[in-house]
Design brief:
The complex is a heterodimer of chains A (228) and B (284). Chain A is α/β, with parallel strands linked by helices and 228 residues long. Chain A has 2 domains: 153 residues, P-loop containing nucleotide triphosphate hydrolases (Rossmann fold, 3-Layer(aba) Sandwich); 68 residues, no CATH class. In chain A, 32% of the residues lie in helices and 26% in strands. A 6-stranded mixed beta sheet of chain A has the order 6-7-8-3-9-10, with helices on both faces. In chain A, strand 4 and strand 5 form a beta hairpin. With 284 residues, chain B is an alpha+beta fold. Chain B has 2 domains: 179 residues, no CATH class; 98 residues, Alpha-Beta Plaits, CATH 3.30.70.3040. Helix content of chain B is 74%, strand content 9%. Chain B contains 10 helices and 4 strands. In chain B, helix 1 packs across helix 2, helix 2 runs antiparallel to helix 7 and helix 9 runs antiparallel to helix 10. The longest helix of chain B has 44 residues. Chain B is elongated. At the A-B interface, helix 2 of A face helix 8 of B.
């Protein structure tokens, strides 16, 4: 699904975000990317959806080298991915339904299909009853569910979540991670960056730990801090 | 639709962009009107297809008759008319109207007799004029094509000056329009960010801003067209009444030829300004 081949990223300021990262994510996997702040977790995800280019190395998504991808093809790559952020990134003047539909409308999906797919996504995240609400009327957890629904509406095989529980209380964080687990069970590959030790330790999924930009640990059924 | 919305929402900035575009195009429009007028006069002169050969005073009827035969045989001469000194004075009096009675002022008629040669093709005018000048009986030759060529040279200079001034002002308008569009881009940055992330193509994102730029430029052009055409109409109708020999083109003719050029320029400036703004701020 995703391959990193000796990927290094050095920013113009001289900061090295990633060092010789080699990593392979198989379809239907659920992977936590953990590590201290500034260790390159977000940069890793940005490479996948081509928001950043590596200084050296290759990144392959669905077998395609995205580092060599021409700019006009990037939108089509992103339609095959879902991305969820810590700050939700919802449009405040659009309702829940409109926020989710937006992802389909701006990518040319025929109007007759939009309603059905929006409904499907809202059903998955359990927000059908709140479809007419504005983001300002929702709790943080509900807003993140809307963000997840929008990420799912293209039915992507791969979902990237960058600190999805960063702005949430522990109970809500657990709800969101359970939702992500259900999505994974339905067949979507999941890559989640997180600082949330509790959730990582409870779920015991594959853990890739970054330290100073390099992969320092890669464990199936791992713990946040390593060990068994 | 979003392009119209963006134009409307920007309010003051859109108004500023429209105004500066209008000023730019006023300068260009003025140059175009002057050039179109001179062009019209030049072509009118060319279409006259006439060369006037002024005769020396004191020719005998036989000399004048022999000259007539030789002029009529010149290649390209279709017909030939004789204008006597008296007839010339009468025509002159008619052209200046009742402003003065020249016959009262003059002790002798200074105007020469002439032969008016009509050419069968404007291309022959220069050759006919040159040949006519060779005849010793001919004092001077008034060649419509020379005047036309001189006017066309002036027209070219005015056009070049107008284009240069227009290009400089267009650059200013471009910068102002780009700034106005940047405001819209900035106001919609959250939406644009989401569009980029969910896979909207660059042109889908870009398109509404180009429409907004085209509207801004088009409105500026519209204002310029109204002012230029309006001003010319007032001047032309006034001049035709008091200076009929000026041969000014009809206002509708000038308005039509200048309008579409100004609108094209305005829309082009608007679109280019938008492309620059979008490119810089959208990383698209």
């Amino acid at each position: 699904m995703v391959e990193f081949e000796r990927v290094t990223k050095v920013y113009p300021t001289g900061l090295t975000a990633l060092r010789e990262v080699t990593l392979s994510i198989a379809p239907r996997e659920f992977v936590f990317i953990v590590g201290p702040t500034g260790t390159g977790k977000s940069t890793l995800l940005k490479m996948i959806y081509r928001e950043e280019l590596p200084t050296s190395g290759r990144v392959l998504v669905h077998g395609r080298d995205v580092t060599r991808m021409p700019a006009h093809q990037i939108p089509f790559l992103r339609r095959q991915l879902g991305v969820v952020f810590e700050d939700f990134r919802l449009l405040p003047r659009k309702t829940v339904r409109e926020n989710v539909a937006f992802a389909l409308e701006v990518t040319g999906v025929p109007p007759r299909e939009v309603d059905d797919r929006v409904q499907e996504a809202l059903d998955v995240v359990g927000l059908t009853a709140r479809a007419g609400a504005l983001p300002g009327e929702l709790s943080a957890g509900e807003q993140q569910r809307v963000s997840i629904a929008r990420a799912l509406v293209h039915r992507p095989p791969l979902l990237l979540a960058d600190e999805p529980t960063g702005n949430l209380d522990p109970d809500t964080s657990w709800d969101i991670v359970q939702l992500l687990s259900q999505i994974n069970l339905r067949g979507t590959t999941l890559l989640v960056t997180t600082h949330d030790k509790t959730i990582v330790d409870i779920l015991r999924r594959r853990v890739v730990a970054l330290g100073d930009g390099a992969v320092v640990r890669d464990q199936p059924r791992g713990l946040y801090a390593g060990g068994r | 639709m979003e392009g119209f919305e963006g134009f409307r929402r920007n309010g003051v900035m859109s108004a500023a962009a429209v105004t500066i575009t209008m000023v730019t195009l006023l300068a260009l429009g003025g140059a175009l009107v002057v050039a179109a007028t001179l062009d019209h006069i030049a072509r009118h002169l060319e279409r006259q297809m006439q060369v006037v050969a002024y005769l020396r005073d004191g020719l005998t009827p036989a000399q004048a008759g022999a000259l007539r035969d030789r002029l009529a045989r010149l290649p390209g001469v279709r017909s030939l008319d004789y204008v006597s000194k008296d007839e010339a004075l009468t025509r002159f009096q008619q052209s200046i109207g009742g402003q003065m009675d020249v016959q009262d002022l003059l002790t002798r008629n200074p105007l020469p007799a002439s032969y008016v040669l009509t050419a069968d093709d404007p291309a022959h005018l220069s050759a006919i004029a040159a040949a006519a000048r060779e005849f010793p009986e001919v004092e001077d030759v008034n060649d419509g094509s020379q005047a036309a060529a001189r006017l066309l040279r002036v027209t070219r200079i005015i056009r070049l000056a107008g284009d240069a001034a227009g290009a400089a002002l267009a650059l200013v308008a471009l910068v102002i329009i780009a700034s106005a569009i940047r405001l819209t881009v900035f106001a919609r940055r959250a939406e644009i960010e989401v569009m980029r992330l969910v896979g909207a193509t660059a042109w889908f994102i870009r398109w509404p801003f180009l429409v907004e730029g085209a509207i801004t430029g088009g409105c500026g052009a519209g204002g310029a067209v109204l002012l230029v055409a309006g001003a010319y109409t007032v001047v032309a109708y006034g001049a035709r009444a008091s200076l009929p020999f000026l041969l000014l083109p009809a206002p509708e003719q000038v308005a039509l030829s200048v309008s579409w050029k100004l609108v094209l320029w305005g829309v082009a400036i608007g679109i280019i300004g938008s492309l620059l703004a979008v490119r810089k701020y959208l990383r698209v």
